[in-house]
Amino acid sequence: MNAVKPILVMSVWLATSCGIVAAAQADDKGVSGHVMFGAAFVPDYEGSQDYTAAPVAAAKVEYEGYYVETRGLGLRANLSPNRAFEIGPAISFNGGRDDDVDNARVARMREIDSTVEAGMFLKVPFRGLLSGTDELAFNFDFLADTGDSHEGYKIGFGPSYGFAATERLRLGASLSATYASDDYTQTFFGVDADNAARSGLARYDAEGGIKDVGIGVNAMYSLNRSWGITGMARYTQLIGDAADSPLVDQEGSAGQAMVSLGVLYRF
Q1: What is the CATH number of the domain that holds 93?
Q2: Second label for 194, Cα 20 to 30 Å away, from 31, 82, 143, 202?
């Protein structure tokens, strides 16, 4: 399978986990940041019951609260000088869906072209609530197709929380939900007459709405001041028209699990 798509599945998840590193560095002055690389076990495509291994990576460079960070094959930048909130532009490469998938029926459907999605993000953090090292944050992001692949948009939102369990171990957890527009949902989960003839699946019109809800946990263990190990696990449940799609209900699974392990370098 093309590794682009698993990496994109990981993008928001990586961002949440790397947020626990960012919280630990929040008081640093000058230029700081981190790079992370590792491997993940993720669904073959959104809604698949088949899984594949994929490489993952993330990076962040920060200067006095301003930062640029990668998220999978996406990029975002905080332009806010106020530490009470972070806001800025965001872009992401959506790999679509090709015919290199394990499910024979889905493989016969028309390929969904890759595209660049663009939008913005907002994060509102609250630090030092229960200890001097914790952070509760409320996250929001909006991404819309800039081409003619799915011509829709997604809105992601949910809280995250991170804290230092010990001097070396930092833990985090997050809840999330994703709203997807009619065009996005129909493109990835609908079955029109042509795709029904190609795949043998029944025709299905998918409408927009809350596409999924999820819960995740993550950890970062510092080996020394520069190096650390990160681990992540997440479960996402497709709901609504996405879950009722024949691609999911008959050929795949509404439950999507993801796990990852990586090495992190801070500077």
Answers
A1: 2.40.128
A2: 143
